[in-house]
Amino acid sequence: MSRVNSAFGVGLVALLAGACTPPPPVSKPVVPVVAPPAVEEAERGQLCSEVRADGAGSALALVVLRDAQPNECELVTVKAGVALDEAELDKTVRALFATGHYSDVVGVTEDSPRGPRLALEVVPLPKLVTLNFEGATALNREELLKASRLSESAFLAKDDVRRAALGLSEAFEALGFRHVKVQPALSSVEGKGSALSFTIVEGKRALLKEVRAEGLKSLDQKTLDKIADKLLGGAVTEATSEELRQRLVSFLLDGGYVAGEVSTMAVTEAANGDLSGRFKITPGAKFKIGTVGLAGEPCLPGPKLEALVKGTRPGQTFSRKKVADDRKALEAACAAAGSPRLIDVATDLQLDKKRINLVFGMLPL
Length: 365
Hints:
single chain, alpha/beta, four-stranded mixed sheet
């Protein structure tokens, strides 16, 4: 009994002792911590093309166009998904330049979380929001715009202002304003673009009052005035000066002076603005016609064709007008005979003999 009690006592003590010991820890399931998905940085500019990639390799993952006008991705021939093609990049840069919207276009390759990125970066030209002309009276606004080759809402390139000022100056000079002054003023309009104005001082109009020539005694003033014709009283420009010179050259050729020379016109301006033009003529010797021949496919028997050549017979003084008259006579005769021809005149100049040989070539039409 005592053993039992002893045993019982031992068990009770053990039980009591166990009641004072902390219980073993309870195992809990491990929950993995998942980082929030990375937020992909928004692309700056227009996204022209893209592919889903893991960021590895040399193929372009993205192609973007920055600071450009809307809807110009259609000009970008470089595509994502393949390695950068330098030829396509050059083609794209040229196409963007050709729009006239930009002063610079560059392609830059960059790293991105998705892989290589090609960024096409442009430098926009300023936009012309206002265009004004002050001081002009001889030209209206439409004519001024045409001369300047500018228009509102256009993009203003680097040399546009200089070219516009030059175009305006030339337009006024063509009207006889030899001392015109064109002063441009360019300013920025915040948030919109640029404002451009031209101040124009026309000055006094100067016109051609007289024409003089020296070096050819047979050219009298009455004939010279007739040669100048309607150019007298008009503005003097490079075009009108050259036209006058060519008229004098034609006069020499009609007189047989095949090797004659005419200088450019020297212009002097009087105090009242009237202009005087002067030419120096070096006529040389008169040329005679040497031989005259017919070639090609004749439209009539030879004797009939030869009879039509009246102004350019051997021994006569050469005249370009007479050559033209004979050519027209041959063409008219061939047309009337039902065999139209194009008459081409070939010349052979013999300077040492002061002679010119002619051949009228006949070409079927």
